[in-house]
Specification:
346 residues, alpha+beta, five-stranded mixed β-sheet, three-stranded antiparallel β-sheet, 6 helices, 13 strands, 18% strand
Length: 346
């Protein structure tokens, strides 16, 4: 007799068919197979031998008679070339299928629009000149030094008791000395550039910049200096860049952001002309009879400057810098019809 012991509580049972312990309910291990001995085993062997003999006789009796070539008697004969197949005998292979090729497509990038150049007159001329926009930029110095007392309010600091304003362009420079040139109001042009800058920031999810009159005076002074001394750089002949000019005026633009602070004015500059194209009409003897100018409008100049800045990485980074809260735009006109534009950020 085979006994089964519960692995959990040790209870013993003699019932081979019992699956679970009657004491704790734990599943019992399967009992070992029963061993048949003595007369019972001999009797089972005799019965098994008789069954095997009967099965062999039945198979032999059911086989059909075959002819000399091994074909069942009465089966039809076939001639011709046998067909080979990769499938086993009596198995019809499945037809093969070609899976359709899949492709992916990408939306082509759309280039940013560029301003349409001023129209060129069909009037015959022997010499022509096209004026291009010149741009330069400088960025704020960022110092990543933790501060002892964080100041979350972004406040530009004016450090001098009496601030200094650089020389501003006089009103008589606003009118071109070239006959036929339209008048461009510098204040209106500055305001339009400021509006277009804020439109770009809003389109990129940023807050608008306020217009700071002190920053505008610093910017206008640099534009006037460039127009007077005929240079186009962030650094003037005395070696003062935008940051140094801001500190000189008493506007160092220091902002504290708890874990770091920014220091110094950032700046974009541009230089365009009142016109994009002009033509010299030449007489047969080689002298210039007349110069024809294709003057630009205030809106065209403002759009051209801002579009040029947005298409330039450094200028764009300044315009879309989330640190800045105010800007100043300053323009000045040179005697050769060049227009200098300075944009200062803080």
């Amino acid at each position: 007799m085979v006994r089964t012991t519960c692995p959990h509580c040790g209870a013993v049972t003699n019932d081979r068919s019992q699956k679970f312990c009657t004491q704790c309910g734990t599943r019992l291990p399967a009992p070992p197979p029963a061993v048949i001995t003595g007369r019972a085993a001999a009797g089972m062997a005799v019965v098994a031998g008789i069954v095997v003999v009967i099965v062999i006789a039945a198979i032999f009796w059911s086989l059909p008679a075959r002819d000399s070539v091994g074909k069942p008697a009465g089966a039809p004969s076939f001639s011709g070339t046998p067909v080979s197949t990769t499938a086993g005998s009596g198995v019809t292979p499945l037809p093969s299928e070609s899976l359709p090729a899949t492709t992916t497509s990408q939306t082509p990038a759309t280039p940013l629009p560029t301003p349409t150049p001023a129209p060129v007159s069909p009037t015959a001329a022997l010499t022509t000149r096209t004026i291009t926009t010149t741009l330069k930029t400088t960025q704020t110095t960022v110092t990543t030094i933790p501060t002892a007392s964080p100041t979350p309010v972004f406040t530009a600091q004016i450090t001098l008791e009496v601030t200094r304003v650089p020389g501003q362009p006089p009103s008589d420079t606003y009118t071109s000395k070239t006959e036929g040139a339209p008048f461009i109001d510098p204040s209106s042009l500055e305001a339009r550039i400021h509006t277009l800058i804020n439109e770009q920031r809003q389109q990129n999810g940023l807050s608008i910049l306020s217009s700071d009159s002190f920053l505008a005076s610093i910017a206008r002074g640099h534009s006037y200096d460039m127009s007077l001394r005929n240079f186009f750089e962030h650094t003037n002949p005395e070696g003062m860049d935008a940051r140094a000019r801001g500190e000189w005026a008493g506007y160092p633009c220091v902002r504290d952001y708890e874990t770091y602070y920014t220091e110094g004015i950032s700046e974009n500059i541009a230089m365009v002309y009142r016109y994009d194209t002009y033509k010299n009409l030449i007489a047969p003897n080689g002298t210039v009879m007349e110069t024809v100018y294709y003057w630009n409008t205030e809106e065209y100049i403002a759009d051209k400057v801002v579009t040029g800045w947005m298409n330039s990485e450094g200028h764009r980074n300044n315009i879309l810098d989330y640190h800045f809260q105010q800007e100043g735009i300053g323009v000045a006109f040179a005697s050769d019809n060049a227009i200098y534009i300075t944009e200062n950020f803080c």
